[in-house]
Amino acid sequence: MTTGPTRNPSDLSNGEREKRMWEKLQNGEAIETVDEMSDEYYDNLTNLMLQQADSELADAFGYVPWIMNAPTTEEKLAVANIVKDEVRHARAMYRLLTDIGVDAESHVAKHNYTLRVGLKADDKRVNIFYYTIDTWADFIVFQFCMDRGAGHQLEDVRRSSYGPWRREIERIFKEETMHVSHGDFWVRKLAFDHSTRAKVQEALDTWYPRTMNIFGKPKTRHNTLYRKFGLKSRDNDEVRRGFADEVRFRCSECGLRLPDWKPDWEKMEEDGVVSS
Ligand SMILES: [Fe+2]
Ligand SMILES: [Fe+2]
Questions:
Q1: Which of 37, 97, 114, 221 is the most buried (most CB within 10 A)?
Q2: pTM
Q3: Which of 135, 239, 147, 131 is nearest to 184 (CA)?
Q4: pLDDT exceeds 80 at position 275
């Protein structure tokens, strides 16, 4: 780990912690402390939680200009509240990481979460958070696609073997559901208005394939490990199909065309990332 996690000093060897861990996992109990995690479980857990935390923060910063650019004062307030939610999600995740010995504040201080172009930042956000949101239709369709995609991924966290994360995710999940509803309301509004229909279709053509790519490749080594440890419960492709089915239904409701998506397995990241 580059962020320098320091476990609570304990006399327990990796073997002893691993034994405790499997006893709990096999009894269907949640893991609650670092003393119940093998080194491998710890590394996989911190990797997944950092991906979510960094994605939440990069997401919040990507939305900030839309406080100023939203079409009405009511919408400026709505976007400001969404930004507040995303920063809160990031803060909650970094706090969980701090609780298990990750120096989250140093990690955040080292990275530039406002960076949008060039895909060069070395934080752990999923790639979709590097693209700029250029229009109001983009902002809305980003919510319609990415918040919905994140929701599908967070479903697995609700069943995660790590208790503190599983409990924290419930509140995050409720707020993400509201973001999706905001996106749905506006997609319908833009789709049923002849003056904005083409714009929303264009935004969908852009953001739907990008969101389909966040879920990662099917049957990856990482996903197999995450499932073994109870940190995920489904294959990447199964999560993606659930998302695609829902978007197809929503699009058919308001007469939008579901864009084509052809997987580029070569370029795609191995595993998707929870959150937005
Ligand atoms: Fe969100
Ligand atoms: Fe979020």
A1: 37
A2: 0.90
A3: 147
A4: no
